[in-house]
Amino acid sequence: KKHRIAVIPGDGIGLEVIDAGKKVLETLVESYPSVGFEFKDFDWSSKRYLEKGQYIPDGGIEELKTFDAIYFGAVGSEEVPDHISLWDLRLKICQGFDQYANVRPARVLPGVTSRLQHADKIDWVIIRENSEGEYSGNGGRVHQGLPDEVGTEVSLFTRKGIERIHRFAFDMAMSRPRKKLTLVTKSNAQRHGMVLWDEIFFEVAKDYPEVEINRELVDAVTTTMVLKPERLDVIVATNLHADIISDLAAALSGSLGIAPTANLNPSGEFPSMFEPIHGSAFDITGKGIANPIGAFWTAVMMLEHLGEQTLAERLMAAVEEVIGSGLQAPDLGGKATTREITDAVCASIREK
Ligand code: NAI
Ligand code: MG
User: Fold this and answer.
1) How far is ligand 2, taken at its centre, from the CA of residue 27, in Å?
2) How far is the CA of 238 from the centre of ligand 1 (A)?
3) 320-338: pLDDT as tens digits
4) 173: number of CA atoms within 13 Å, CB side?
């Protein structure tokens, strides 16, 4: 089967790690002649925005619709304010394609040392609501520049939006051996939308009697993540909360440079988007030392989504073999370059 992949490397190290990811995917299909990838590159980036005034050209979203998946790098530049780059590119795709479920697995890969003592107990999947909540863009500013200036940032939660993410999270919990699901909110201090979020969770829970549920406030769950990582399995949280705790999860499992994420449109009506969780990393751009493992693990998630389980397993095994052998990028304390790690993963794929 030929999969059509829209590739949006974006900015900074996004270009470096996505290039590496394409190499690895192309190497993978050498062993599986029945599977193919047709990549189409899109130059949607801050560079394009500065030259042409737009991240996404007119008709761009329409064109993306025809692809089976989107492989995304990172967006963000020192020349463009982050709220513009984020909203004009990444969020336009996530929201335009109703990618309401953001899935972030976290575990410590072999050979990776975490700062956390019991990091081997980390085996989590964080489910982030990706379409509304704190990032729905509601609010405004009045009296700009005056002493009594006010800015509001209004979270928006809908019954439909909450119910579908909880169902997705319960299904995810059912697919895992421990079948545990932790609800994360801040419904003691935020008493409207967050309370609705909790209530719907317990309604949906009735349809999943096999799932062991518990709830934690977002501040408390950060301590559980650090002190009792084994208590957690699947975690469901709102857009903002999950954004924060998933960065914590990535750091606890070694480095931002290795963590992947999927922005899923579970109905399959529109393409889903796969990206490493890190950003464009100005500090290391162009040095050739970006860790490509996040982009590779991201490719594994994309393969699973495309129904290519065998390829996904082979790629993950190659990644684990290379990282386990001690060949590691500087963010994990090693000396290996992006190129060396990519070549080693390709070699490992060919040997299997
Ligand atoms: P960042 O993730 O780009 O970098 C944070 C730190 O982690 C830096 O020290 C960086 O060198 C390191 N790092 C990140 N990925 C790495 C990798 N693959 N290998 C080795 N080291 C790695 O986050 P930061 O610095 O907060 O943001 C930089 C820009 O990226 C900003 O414009 C921000 O808005 C954007 N950003 C974009 C994201 C996206 O496109 N989804 C996500 C996060 C940030
Ligand atoms: Mg984030």
Assistant:
1) 30
2) 22
3) 999 999 999 999 999 999 9
4) 27
Query: Which residue has the least CA distance to atom 8 on ligand 1?
Result: 281
Token pair, residue 127, equals 């489910």
Please work out whether the CB of residue 204 comes within 6 Å of at least one atom of ligand 1: no
- CB under 8 Å to 33, separation ≥6 — which residues? none
The verdict on the CB of residue 79 being under 6 Å from ligand 1 is no
C-alpha torsion 315→318→322→323, nearest 10: 50
Q: What is the pLDDT of residues 185-208, one digit of tens each?
A: 999 989 999 999 999 999 999 999
For 269, other C-beta atoms within 10 Å of its C-beta total 9
247 alpha carbon, closest ligand: 2
Q: What is the pLDDT of residue 20?
A: 98
CA 306 remoteness from chain centre:
17
Sign, CA dihedral 129-135-137-141, equals: positive
On whether the CB atoms of residues 311 and 330 are closer than 8 A, the answer is no
- Model ipTM over 0.90: yes
Q: Is the CB of 281 under 6 A from ligand 1?
A: yes
CA distances from 238 to 105, 135, 180, 301 (A): 16, 9, 18, 22
Distance CA 60, CA 93 (A): 10
Residue nearest to atom 33 of ligand 1 (CA): 76
The rounded Å distance from CA 78 to ligand 1 centre is 12
Compute the distance from residue 258 Cα to the ligand 2 centre, in Å. 14
CA 196 to chain centre: 25
pLDDT tens track for 77-116: 999 999 999 889 998 999 899 999 999 999 999 888 888 8
Ligand minimally distant from the alpha carbon of residue 293: 1
Map tokens 């052998």 to a residue.
325
Q: Are 139 and 243 in contact (CB under 8 A)?
A: no
Ligand nearest to the CA of residue 276, numbered in listed order: 1
Residue 284 Cβ < 6 Å to ligand 1: yes
CA nearest ligand 1 atom 18, residue: 257
Q: Which domains does the chain have, with CATH numbers?
A: 1-99+259-352 (3.40.718.10), 114-253 (3.40.718.10)
